[in-house]
Exodeoxyribonuclease III
Amino acid sequence: MKIATYNVNGISARLPVLLRWLAEAQPDVVCLQELKAPQEKFPLKEIQDAGYHAIWHGQKSWNGVAILSRSADIKEVRRGLPGDEEDVQSRYIEAMVNDVLIACLYLPNGNPAPGPKFDYKLDWFRRFTTHAQMLWEEDIPVVLCGDYNVIPTALDAYKAERWVDDALFRPETVEAFNKLMQQGWTDAIRKLYPYEVIYTFFDYFRDAYGRNAGLRIDHFLLSPHLNKRLLAGGVYHDVRGWEKSSDHAPVWIEVKD
């Protein structure tokens, strides 16, 4: 089963790119982030015509997450991260697909930091870590994937020293990510490529993509059940260079059925 995650940076604007990539890559399951579309504006017909089932959690102008499945049914488990009833941002959706629990997340950016947005990021991270622990204890195959807006280590950023004061790489953010990892999750891409420079995000400015001046902020965290079944993975780097593409590239893993 091939599982992919892709921050599309606006599904309406990027729909031709998304559909082209789906046709070429044919992932079995796709987690999308940053739909930037209200619930009723999700392009369901186009997604279905491409051969995919879909569930989504939209929001006008901002955020938004979705899970697509090419063959297996999607059984929605949860939409919205528990722990704060007043949080209305659409950043989390969870479903069972082919006996795997798929958690699709769009963790807050947090800039400028310090400040209220950074406080929200850290609070969201704490809530997510609490929920992840509950999923871990269910002892089932789980993948936590999406745009984490976290640079885990200096290897994951071009000229990492320039990011030390950014919300994606501040010590509090890295500490929160490490606390999550200490539950026992496996960073799938780093397991496959422990020492390689791999980026998933390239800013639109200063020819970042052309210079390979990127960040690795889109991650797959696997429970032990899937860690044992991990076969391959990587980044669809070329997609970032397509016309009118997102500033993220799709990331994928393949696990044994």
Q: What stands out?
A: The domain at 2-255 is CATH 3.60.10.10 (Deoxyribonuclease I; Chain A). The two ends are 6 Å apart (CA to CA).
